[in-house]
Amino acid sequence: MAKPLPPLVRLHLTGLRLLLVFTVICGIAYPLLITGIGELIFPGQANGSQVRLNGRVVGSSLLGQNFTLRRIDPKAPSVPDPRWFQPRPSAAGADGYDPTASGASNLGPNDTGLTKTVQARRLAIALFDGVRPSSVPPDAVTGSGSGLDPDISPAYAYEQVNRVAHSRRLPVATVRALVADHVDGRVLGFLGQQRVNVVALNLALARLG
Amino acid sequence: MNPTLAGFLQALLLVAALAASYRPLGDYIARILTGPRHLRVERPLYKLIGVDPAADQTWYAYLRSVLAFSAISVLFLYLFQRIQNHLWLSLGFPAVPAPTAWNTAASFVTNTNWQSYSGEQTMGHLVQMAGLAVQNFLSAAVGIAVVATLIRGFTRTETDRVGNFWVDLTRLLVRLLLPVSLVFAVVLVASGVVENLHAAQTIHTIAGGTQSLPGGPVASQEVIKELGTNGGGFYNANSAHPFENPTAWTNWLEIYLLLVISFALPRTFGRMVGDNRQGYAIVSVMTLYWVVSASLMTFFEWQHHGTALQAAGGAMEGKEVRLGIAASSLFASSTTLTSTGAVNAAHDSLTPLGGGIAVFDMMLGEIAPGGTGSGLYGILVLAIVTVFVAGLMVGRTPEYLGKKLSAREMKFASLYILTTPAIVLIGTGVAMSFKAERAAMLNSGAHGFTEVLYAFTSAANNNGSAFAGLTVTSDWWNTTLGLVMLFGRFLPMVFVLALAGSLARQKPIPSTAGTLHTHDPLFVGMLSGVVLIVVGLTYFPALALGPLAEGLHK
């Protein structure tokens, strides 16, 4: 008969056996079960709440995306397209809204660089939207935590109405009504904030023609 | 509805939900830890693991099991990451570099879940679900198992046995963490959290650009990330990422999940020692600190001090629009008062004093309500110190729940309390004295110092949240913080288990007219004071150099 293993080795082997047992239960069976349930009952949500335009997947209603003019030189800075509602500034990836690089600027509240950036954004947006700098809301000049925020405040959405309407040659009232349709209230009336989903709003705009 | 009222209501609903869970969940956990019967599903598991479920261990054998199991876990998780490129679902990612793999293995085994990597750029789906998420379950259960021995130290008399680690662990996983996770993972999927095994899918956006939509078994990991007070995000942006936390409702639910076990454990304690009032006293102190912290955090964020935030007109840098100030503040405060460390906003961009609250929350030792298990043993050690201080005042030998607190017990309690501040302050000092390591700071001045202080505080307290501007991908930072997490987790556990063994051995002493009541408002007040003075003030000089210097600056 083989010699029994030393107690210290036996102890570690017990640990390894427990680890392997629960790796199978909690690490394989459990996530596969949840994935199965997701695919069966909530396939839309489980697969990322994708949205379609003319039958083609054009994004996720949960992830913001860029609405910039097409660039000929890929190294040139991206320029916002006036025909679309613009999302918040984003720190995800070089051009923003890159889900392979989610994250925030992580700049501190007193950072001089961030202060200058905020002021520059305020002026640029005021010029772009043809409004007074003081009426640009905080969410328009700050980056989100994920860099993928799909939402803007109703104030920022309404502020963009005139510009979008003019560049699309649409009646201002039509665009304003579209925004009003897309203002989501707080969940249950008190959770979170009022918001406008930019992806959903621009999708509705695209369907308008 | 105005934002202040809405913010107040979301907190009120949370308090109501936690209060409703307190008794049933606390009693249920007490039954898990004391019930003599084994479930039918558990018996074959004990066979597979090769343990005799009837054999109780001494505190020392229990400790050896904890350490052996954790060592194996670190090794396993390290190797898993190192060979991920040869396994399924690697998404084409290479093997995780050694320093990062070491840091991550230490981080997930210690319930810290500090992340020096970016999830969507580093980890394949298999490592996430069968490596990282498994430790989310296990490390949470280890914490509860350790506090179970401390409670048994009070309830058992004249024995050297404090329980069986393998049984405690198995029961907590099978009866508590897994079933609760199953239910709420489905709720999260229904609410929009993704759950699939797809690789990223490239699509053409509405405006004609391209975007890469990530996949992943996120919901199943998200729920245990919160429930087990782990906090390691599937994606880099953690709970700010819309795929992890799509709505204000999931945000509320995630805060509830990360608080619920730790807030119910005082009931387990009261139930097991046979006096529910003891549990109410402990939970009162936890609630007091949680309410004060969340209120101050929200207040400072509303105030949006700081030149950049004043220029923006609101503290929205690093925050999501669907969540806003109140829900982000409540999350930030709850995640740092527990050992969770999940974040739904960039803590580095919090206001100076709001960020100060976050770091101070962790410095308190994460006891309000703290990590699963670790929060309760942390506050029970402080309760022991409180009883001792009260005993000194009146010149009596201090006793807690019929157990005498002699020099031996006080040595373990003192060592417990000294360990974490020593690691944090020495570590911060060392890092700040090296030019190359200081260069890891993104921000300058006092805010940069806070980044370093926050990193060591978070690692030593096994929190895992970060002032993420700090670049911690260098070998030095990965190695050092890995060690800090291991010391910060297991040294206190050694002292808690030694304390448990020492208490269990004693004969109970009958309560007399001179015995200090440990369930009345006077004790709640004293314990609250001890938390603030003994733990909080240790860090005052460091806080003065960081958040206070920045926040009180005109």
UniProtKB/TrEMBL annotation, chain A:
Record keywords, A-Z: ATP-binding, Cell membrane, Ion transport, Membrane, Nucleotide-binding, Potassium, Potassium transport, Transmembrane, Transmembrane helix, Transport
Alphabetized GO MF terms: ATP binding; P-type potassium transmembrane transporter activity
Domain of life: Bacteria
Localization (cell): Cell membrane
Topology in membrane: Single-pass membrane protein
Transmembrane segments: 20-42
Coiled coil region boundaries: none
Biased composition (Polar residues): 102-113
Chain residue ranges for the region called Disordered: 73-113
Cellular component terms (Gene Ontology): plasma membrane
NCBIfam families from the UniProt entry: kdpC, PRK00315.1
Function: Part of the high-affinity ATP-driven potassium transport (or Kdp) system, which catalyzes the hydrolysis of ATP coupled with the electrogenic transport of potassium into the cytoplasm. This subunit acts as a catalytic chaperone that increases the ATP-binding affinity of the ATP-hydrolyzing subunit KdpB by the formation of a transient KdpB/KdpC/ATP ternary complex.
Family from the record: Belongs to the KdpC family.
Quaternary context: The system is composed of three essential subunits: KdpA, KdpB and KdpC.
UniProt-recorded name of the protein: Potassium-transporting ATPase KdpC subunit
Organism (species): Streptacidiphilus pinicola
Gene that this polypeptide is encoded by: kdpC
UniProtKB/TrEMBL annotation, chain B:
GO cellular component: plasma membrane
Record flagged with keyword Ion transport: yes
Segments traversing the membrane: 59-80, 87-109, 129-151, 172-194, 249-268, 280-300, 375-394, 415-434, 480-501, 522-544
Any one GO molecular-function label of the UniProt entry: P-type potassium transmembrane transporter activity
InterPro entries: KdpA
HAMAP family, per the entry: KdpA (MF_00275)
Subunit and interaction comment: The system is composed of three essential subunits: KdpA, KdpB and KdpC.
Function per UniProt: Part of the high-affinity ATP-driven potassium transport (or Kdp) system, which catalyzes the hydrolysis of ATP coupled with the electrogenic transport of potassium into the cytoplasm. This subunit binds the extracellular potassium ions and delivers the ions to the membrane domain of KdpB through an intramembrane tunnel.
Protein name according to UniProt: Potassium-transporting ATPase potassium-binding subunit
Organism encoding this protein: Streptacidiphilus pinicola
